Predict the structure of Dipeptide epimerase.
Amino acid sequence: MPRILDIQMNSFPIAGTFTIARGAKTQAEVITCALTDEGAEGHGECVPYRRYGETMQSVLAQIEAARPLIEAGISRRDLLSAMPPGAARNAVDCALWDLEAKQTGQSVASRLGIADPRPLTTAYTISLGEPEVMAAQAREHAGRALLKVKVGTGDDESRIRAVRAAAPEAAIILDANEGWPEAALERHLNIAAEAGVALVEQPLPAGRDALLAEIRRPLLVCADESVHHTGDLASLADRYDAINIKLDKSGGLTEALAMKTEAERIGFAIMIGCMVGTSLAIAPAVLLAQNADFVDLDGPLLLARDREPGLRYAASLVFPPEGSLWG
Ligand SMILES: CC(C)C[C@H](N)C(=O)N[C@H](CCOc1cc(O)cc2c1C(=O)N[C@@H]2C)C(=O)O
Ligand SMILES: [Mg+2]
């Protein structure tokens, strides 16, 4: 019996509205791939992202175009050259990992040499808003170990100070999502350092971030929109201290593992991040993140409804996936 690929578009409601510098969102729109082969079934999920020129339709079309290769049994290694990095390859690659685990009876964790995957402390995202609204959100989640605070305007001083005052014990990451003007960069970085912020993510627009190499960076600065795959790393070494690896950017776990190894060799601190997706998208990332410096895998926490079964989240922890979900 041949390998069969099923592709679905699914929508999961977000609890409330999620806002950053680029806009707001009420639904998580995802694509799910199911691969069936001789009774075994593997699943993978991806989240198309407009910022990277992806739509549900374009990603669906990319997977459809690769269907003949996928159903003919392409390997994960060959998939790396058959499809470009991005969401479409991610869904297929993760479905292949899951299928291999189900076919061999060996979990993905075990195949990666992780004998006993640990629960990880994940960031929780505070959406962009007026300083007092963000402070109220931060106060509500002040007991969490790590908050990821969305900023990205010309003047974020009051936001940074308000959030820090509302959550004095939490470690804080700021994510500007490319939203800081060059003129505000050093001032914002200094305010963040003074507030004890651990790291600032993507302050300047991708491709227009050379200024970062010319200034003194008083805290870790992390590339997100500027870095997608291994080939991007070398040119970023002068301007970033850390990189945010996401499966939807790298195009799956296979490339993300290689990217992490090369990033560590260069000396980058590692963050493992996510898009607004379900537990199926996050499950492979939990394994990738086992020894990461920063873990930002809170996508399912923003959903009003997740997959069943989903990942287990308790307090600030996200637990490794059970095989019934993925891997
Ligand atoms: C649930 C969080 C968004 C997940 C993570 N903590 C995070 O901050 N990820 C973003 C990238 C994903 O952000 C998206 C996705 C999307 O489809 C639409 C939007 C955003 C966003 O940030 N703003 C718009 C509304 C990151 O690390 O940058
Ligand atoms: Mg980011």
Remarks:
- The pocket of magnesium ion (ligand 2) is lined by residues 175, 177, 201-202, 224, 244 (CB under 6 Å).
- The radius of gyration is 19 Å.
- The CA atoms of residues 278 and 300 lie 5 Å apart.
